[in-house]
Amino acid sequence: MNVIECKNLQKEFEGDGTTTVAVNNVNLSFHKGEFTAVIGTSGSGKSTLLSLIGTLDKPSKGKITYDNEEILKKGKNKIADFRFQEIGFIFQQFHLLPTLTALENVLTPLFSRKVPYDKVERAKEVLKQVGLLDKMNALPSQLSGGQQQRVAIARAIVHKPSWLLADEPTGNLDTETGAKIYDLLKELNEQVGCGVLFVTHDPVLAAKANRIITMKDGNVLSDKVGATI
């Protein structure tokens, strides 16, 4: 999948008799290979936008196309298949299963899927890629926060997605560890060629991206390519 397009995209939430517009008439295009930071304060709509792009939620209005196809109009199974084939997710909370080893956690996206490669060898390959092959038998409780996030990144790329969607992946980490995680994502972007959408409230990290989208109150305030904030 090479191009994602958001056209007049809107997401509204109903509650207590009021309507909250989380994403407001957004028009954006993303091309495979880009490293894009989406920045804004809490409540700006950046995480909602990421959920919509990642097919975890559906828009109230407008549409998203993936290589000119509207995946979200298809059934749940088709959407799930598309998500597995094309999207890798990384979150602020690591969401590792506490009773599984690092290797087993990385394998979880592949458990019920048929793939044309050895699943265990692929999991070991990505753990090596993130520098944690020596920790493959460790439980999450035996790993630092930065190491747990590296396991989560390995899990996100084990199925060879076209896009990595990272929602505040450094939010639970100290500044130095967060910078290393960001650098790892940048390295994966450059080496593997997957597109990266990186949601953050940190202008220092965002300034390292190739493209910076700034959001406020659900609106896109600016979209800068090759520029710093």
UniProtKB/TrEMBL annotation:
SMART domains attached to this UniProt entry: AAA (SM00382)
Native source organism of the sequence: Sporosarcina saromensis
Protein name as annotated: ABC transporter ATP-binding protein
Pfam families, per database record: ABC_tran
Superkingdom: Bacteria
Keywords from the named record: ATP-binding, Nucleotide-binding, Transport
Record flagged with keyword ATP-binding: yes
Cross-referenced InterPro entries: AAA+_ATPase (IPR003593), ABC_transporter-like_ATP-bd (IPR003439), ABC_transporter-like_CS (IPR017871), ABC_transpr_LolD-like (IPR015854), MacB-like_ATP-bd (IPR017911), P-loop_NTPase (IPR027417)
MF annotations from Gene Ontology: ATP binding
Database matches in PROSITE patterns: ABC_TRANSPORTER_1, ABC_TRANSPORTER_2
Stretches assigned to the ABC transporter domain: 4-229
